[in-house]
Amino acid sequence: MGGLGFSTYMMFAILLYLTPTILSLSIPSSHWMHPRGNYKFHLKHRCLHSLAHVFGLGSCVVGPKKSEADGITEELLQKFELMAQYSAAAYCPGNNNGTGILITCPSGNCPLVEAAKAHGAFEFENTLWSDDTGFVAIDDANQLIVLAFRGTESLTNWRVNLDGIRRHTDLCKHCHVHSGFWDAWTEIRDRVKTRVLEAVKNHPYHRLVITGHSLGGAIAILAAGDFRKINHDLAARTELYTFGSPRVGNGHTAAFLTYQSDLSFRITSMSDPIPRQPTYLLGYRHTSPEFWIHSHPKYPGPNDIKVVTGLYNKHGNSGKHGFKMARHREYLGPITACRTEADNSG
Asked: What is the pLDDT of residue 125?
């Protein structure tokens, strides 16, 4: 053993074994710039090597530095309100039954969408494996192409939620993603991509916006990751807004998706338990940044939202305890009001 005592050798071996193969490490040069609400996350691509990486047992994960900033602009809040209402509209069955129809909410919780007179360009619902449901809408008033995914509503959706074993994907080299969420996205990926890219071609000055609540938020994150890989121009015009989304993958997944774009907005609320699932103890991490609503969750003001960075930061929703599902249903309004099933799930 090269002169090393047996106990010393064993201690060294145990140390290497216990060193996590995936670490969320901070980058000191990361910082926020927010001139008049134009939040841009500047990240220096530099990897701090763990023992696991040095000895070939794994690779480290570059994560943004943990930080907190109070408040957002009124302009950004208005964007959150519009996107929350599109996510709410995905729960309304009438919006998933045909193309060319106006997007509406019979429960009255998407007035901004209705005022824009957005119309459906493509819809999908009740897919065989995952019960994917949602729509692609054209919003000419705001120059948007909106891809919205419905959250959990059926027992099939719950099966998707609970299929939490991570699998390797084609998202990135080391991206290991929640199996249920990945299967839900890939089940409709080809059809959705075809229709969205067609809409992008037909509306060259519209931005692509992808949004969803709860399970719909998880699928939206993966969809945005895929669309942004197509080409630089599409990545530059693709925005992502999620509400109460669970974690979707390991540290590599979270870091990859974080670095793809500074146009991703992950909104969480107070002690909503869903964004804390699956647990970080199993190696799951969140994308950064997080926009944490810390007060008045149903109708927050700009100062009720904190910007939290890092793949795991306890200064946002991840540091909260309790199980208040009411917080999960109230994102800038009653986001699940159109849900047809009893409103007692995620």
From this structure: 86
User: How far apart (Å, rounded) are the C-alpha atoms in residues 10 and 13?
Assistant: 5
Pick the catalytic residue from 30, 87, 130, 214: 214
Residue type, position 198, single letter = E
Q: Is 50 a catalytic residue?
A: no
Average pLDDT (75-82) is: 98
How far from 240 is each of 154, 220, 223, CA to CA, in Å? Answer: 24, 7, 9
CA-angle at 289, arms to 324 and 194, nearest 5°: 95
Q: What was the pLDDT predicted at 14?
A: 32
Q: What is the DSSP string of 148-196?
A: EE----SHHHHHHHH---EEE-SSSTT-EEEHHHHHHHHHHHHHHHHHH
Bridge partners (DSSP) of residue 213 are: 243
Q: Categorize the per-residue pLDDT at 163 as very low, low, confident or very high, splitting at 50, 70 and 90.
A: confident
> How much of the chain, in percent, has pLDDT values that exceed 90?
66
Among this protein's residues, is 130 annotated catalytic?
Answer: no
272 is catalytic: yes
Catalytic residue among 24, 131, 328, 345: 328
Q: State the alpha helices, DSSP H only, in 19-95.
A: 51-54, 74-89
